[in-house]
Amino acid sequence: MGGLLNTILLTFFSLIIATVFGMLLAMGRVYGKAPLTTIIYVYEKIFRGVPLLVIFFLVYLGLGQIGINLLPFTAAIIGLALRSSAYQAQIFRSAINSIPEGQNIAARTLGMTKIQSIIHIMIPQVLRLSIPSWSNEFTIVLKDTSIALALGVPELLRVAGQIYAIPNYFDYILPILLVVAIIYFIIVILVNKILGYIEKKYKMAGFEVSVER
Amino acid sequence: MSMLELKNIHKKYGSNEILKGVTFSLEKGETKVIIGPSGTGKSTLLRCINQLHPPDKGEVWLDGEEITNKNININRIRQKIGFVFQDFNLFNHLTALQNVSIGLEKVKKMEKEEAKKRAMQELRRVGLENQAEQYPAELSGGQKQRVGIARALAMDPMIILFDEPTSALDPELIGEVLEVMQGLAGKVTMLCVTHEMGFARNVADEIIFMEEGYVLEAGPPMKMFKNPDHKRTGEFLGKIATLYGENKEE
After folding, report:
1. Where are the beta strands (DSSP E) in A81-175?
2. DSSP H or E stretch at residue A132
3. Do B134 and A207 touch (CB under 8 A)?
4. Would the CB atoms of B75 and A111 count as touching at under 8 Å?
5. pLDDT tens, position by position, B192-233
């Protein structure tokens, strides 16, 4: 049970950080000026191009060597957030680009500042448009928390491993792992359902994609 | 003192000089219509007025204040300059009512309830009180544009700029928008870029004919239609009038 809680906490914190950071990256890339956009571009490339396990080791062991000692749990959250923010930046950027520029212009002609236009006009639409891709990103992050076992974080999979390592339970490896698989599966299904509901509830009328025949 | 005064406005995009010195002014309550061939800088001029694209040279004065001055807070000024777009530019995630009230809430910092009430008044003014809860995608083009006008009106602007407000509409929807605009004439200061000759003739106090970045000629509709000073003005008006089914000799 403690393992499940840790898995959920890892997912929760890394996703929150990655969503906020990813949104900032996307905004920076779209609205920012020269050096910033390039830096963000490189950031996205790097963290989408390096395996998660390598990121984990870099954050935990690599930073450890230069004197920044993080708890395995914290290192895992940072590692997951770094990678997910790079992916989410792309999700949000494509959503921003799909909103007609005219709406931003209209907001500015009402007297809104750039920031007000982003907060009141762009972000509410970006979030709505991003739900399907974001829900996909959620499942990836949830499942990849299991890689944190390599740092010794007692998440779901590692705790399961500790259980079947007890000699008495040795014969139950298969059922124990099946239970683990089912738990991941159930969370994914559950959260996707919830997000699907949110998507429906906040959908912008007239923006459903539909073909009747 | 004029409500709006343009002095010698110049604007270049790259090496392409769009506006080559435009000067005119509007008094409070006046309606002026800008006409002219495409690419003569009519829309650019409107964007120079509200500083979306500040002019390279020249001054814009609004109610005695020079707004081309870089040191003023342009967001404060833009509240006073309504803008109605050719392609509406409504906020897709907001209902018609919210589209009108958001400026009041976020820019004018009005209480939510008060903003709603005010927004409802404006929707009623453009005949859309029954569409208040509908989203832009659920409205017809004419209804969208009326929401756009209500959104501009709600801010209590000193002037409203219209950038070809009916050009994106089906012919049968143009009437409802023009009717709303006609209802505003005299009460609101309006500067309209449009090809609607009927509107120009019946509603405008003055028609401004622009060509190639200059004001070629300006005058009351009667004079502009019947005996313009420039041959070119007559030709253009004649062409447009024929195109839009208006009888010039009427």
Report:
1. none
2. helix A123-144
3. no
4. yes
5. 999 888 899 989 999 999 999 999 999 999 999 888 999 999
| pLDDT tens-digit series, residues A152-198 | 899 899 999 888 888 888 888 899 999 999 999 999 999 999 999 99
Dmax of chain B from CA atoms? 55
CA distance B248 to B228: 13
* CB spacing of B90 vs A109 below 8 angstroms: no
* B128 belongs to a structural domain: yes
- C-alpha distances out from residue A181 to A143, A159, A161, Å: 10, 13, 13
Which residues are B218's β-sheet partners?
B208
Q: Domain A2-201: give its CATH code.
A: 1.10.3720.10
Q: Is residue B227 part of a domain?
A: no
Nearest CA in chain B to A110: B79
What ipTM goes with this model? 0.89
Nearest-Cα residue of chain B relative to residue A204: B93
Please give the biggest Cα pair distance in chain A: 72
Number of separate domains in chain B:
1
Domain range enclosing B145: 91-156
